[in-house]
Amino acid sequence: MDRLFSRRRFLGVLVGMGVGALLSGCSRVSADGGANVSQLDGGAKGSASSAGTANEAKFTQGSRVDRGFVVDDSLEVDSRTLHFSLHVPDSYDGSAAYRLYVSCPGWEGLYFQGVGANLVEDFPFVANDYVPNMIVASPQLDDWGQQSADDVVALTEWLLATYNIDTEHVYLSGNSGGGETISLVLGQRPDLYRRALHTISQWDGNLDVLTDAQVPVYMAIGQHDDYYGSDPDRATYQQICDAYRQKGLTDAQISDLVVLDVKPDSYFTDHGRSAGTSQHAGGGALFPHDSDIMGWLFRD
Hints:
This protein is α/β, with parallel strands linked by helices. It has helices at 3-16, 19-26, 51-56, 123-130, 146-162, 177-186, 207-213, 231-246, 251-257, 265-270, 279-286, 291-297; strands spanning 58-60, 65-66, 69-77, 80-87, 98-104, 134-140, 165-175, 195-199, 217-222, 258-263.
């Protein structure tokens, strides 16, 4: 079956279960939000390695604000327009390096599905609870494949070149289709990121590149995820462990580099989900509020 049709059909299932109502609610924009009037206050203080991206890109600040995020920013780079939402804390003035978090949404958050649909999930909104001095970006991608992976890399490089970022503390996450995208990102530019969170998804990227770079990855999914199932993550986890063992790493070292967290059925019912309802939708709703999962991503 064509994959695009399959994802559209699954989106219909989510809408029928109430996620569609959440999506439409996400697009409501508040008048306040705490975003800086100019998101470029503080000047371009990024790393020299990313300066070319900033010089070649044209940034257009958006006008819609949702819970502190400027929703509709855009960046023209390499003959493409990248759409993204951005939160720059009011405390940022460019004098001190801030951390950076790039959160890639799932299938329902693509650009053609509506400006701001990428903010249906709470991953971006909880991040500053863990690290107050952190800039948070959520791209609105066009798909879950290689072009979107290239776009995530380009956006990350532009942010590094434009803001004063602590380049040792750049975090990446991807949920559902966004998880597929970040796996491709980590298969080509793992050097950009300190840690990565991969939720309710599957791995499509190059594991040799990932394990050579030794970027820590946390994979979380429901045991009976109704879109991907948990078997793909189990297989990826085993491949990563085997690759690290071949490199001579100990089990203790490997456990610091890859975590597989398969949530049993009881996890979802204990958190208020009705038995038998979608674990895929449940993971997207619950995992951003799981302190073990999010705490791992931002722990150092």
